[in-house]
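Field reference: sequence -> structure
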Amino acid sequence: MSTITNLTHPTAALRRRAAAQDHYRPAGLLLATIGLIATVSAAIVLWVGARNVADAERLAELKAIGFGLNTTGFALVKSAIAVVLMGILIRLWLRVDSIKGALATLKPDAVAPAPRGEITARHGAATETAATPQPLPIHRVAKTMWAPMLGIGAMAVLAGLAVSWAWAGNPASVAAAAWTQGLQFLGEALILAGISFLLGSILAGLREGGGEVQAALGLPVQTLRTPNTAKMFVALMMLGVMAGILQFALYLVVAAGVANPGAWFAWLGPFREFSLAMILSGIVLALVTIGDVLGFQFDRIRSILVTGK
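Structure field:
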């Protein structure tokens, strides 16, 4: 199984071994199942609390427990998505290997034309170069940052879960409530950022792998220029992460003691959800971009098979 450092571009041997020992999908399904169990358990806890609504103290305890458990369940499901995406990265490079071999025997013989520089393709503006383009700065960042984001995010969620037990033991504690919510939603934002960076790594792999296939055939390398959806994806992801960090800082202000904590809690709730919504919106745009890149590469492969160039 490949390590974190070479998962985004594993060696051919590691690709074959990872395919033969594909633990990513089972691990992702296991995490998703545990997360679902956690969220269902949280719902049961809150249903029990609703039946005892007359007991205000007991209800407050169950709310604290349910909040921590429910948010942790969501984080586990998101982590499951990240694990499955790791397996997709391996499969992507296996696809590059297979296409290299297949196209070499299927494409007709033809004289490769000189690179034309800027070109227009059906899926947007593109470039045609003699060699595979270098990775973009955001691609380098994505390959480096996905693992730290996932790790730090998971630790923040678990720390918030631990604090939620202290909150349940003292439901009137404003500090415990603030720390629980701030930590867990910081963790949620960072986990989503890790997923975003994994999608960025997939885009980098598509770009690099597509270039490798064309270069291996001795053809000019056509590469789709960065679509606007990709630029918006990066912007929304960064804004969402900054908002997630800001909501954590503001919850710390509440924990330190403010004159009217109820008002702070009232508007910080929607604000923390807004931070996650921005990152999720960016993820949607990343998926749209992946679809565009796959369409562009399909057209390029068809052109190679038909014309040989």
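Note: The first helix runs from residue 12 to 20.
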